[in-house]
Design brief:
By secondary structure, the chain is of the alpha+beta class. It has helices spanning 15-42, 47-71, 109-114, 137-153, and strands spanning 11-12, 73-76, 80-85, 91-96, 100-106, 116-123, 130-136. A four-stranded antiparallel sheet has the order 1-2-3-4. The chain has a three-stranded antiparallel sheet with strand order 5-6-7. Helix 1 (15-42) runs antiparallel to helix 2 (47-71). The two termini are 29 Å apart.
């Protein structure tokens, strides 16, 4: 991957997104740990090992959740939008404003409760779609409106 120019000003996603992902991880970890404990009581004590394994894997995953949320970023340039993410496989998507067909803002129930939204940029080539999760709702709206305006200025796409 070629690094973007040093003049690019990266914006990070909201820290609330980390807490949201951590809460979801904790909920699923607890569900599986409780299921393993119930199985240990009803079936065999060996399921306690499964419960400890689930808790250990949940704690390890929490470390990676923090790092993966910090890896997300986006930058607005004059002609395109840059989106980066990934830990092991780093990905940099460059989406020219003139190639965008539409911009989608979504927010599930947990995201709405946290005041967050996800902005997805759609292009003619499905492989070049990009999304930026974990944006504050106001920032997501601002970015959507800016991208729509820039697409109209270029008289293509949107």
């Amino acid at each position: 991957m070629t690094a973007p120019p040093a003049t690019v000003v990266w914006r990070s996603i909201s820290p609330k997104y980390f807490w949201l992902r951590l809460a979801v991880l904790a909920a699923w970890t607890l569900v599986f740990a409780v299921a393993a404990i119930v199985a240990a009581v009803l079936v065999s004590g060996w399921f306690l090992l499964a419960a400890f394994a689930v808790l250990a894997l949940g704690a390890l995953r929490a470390v990676f959740v923090r790092r993966s949320v910090r890896a997300w970023g986006y930058a607005e340039r004059a002609e395109d939008l840059l989106v980066r993410h990934g830990l092991l496989v780093r990905r940099l998507s460059i989406v020219p404003y003139a190639r965008m067909q539409f911009v989608d803002v979504t927010a599930g129930p947990l995201e709405r409760a946290a005041g967050l939204a996800t902005v997805t940029l759609h292009t003619a080539a499905a492989a070049s779609d990009a999304s930026v999760p974990g944006l504050e709702a106001a920032e997501a709206t601002r970015l959507r409106d800016r991208l729509a305006a820039l697409g109209e200025i270029r008289e293509e796409g949107l």
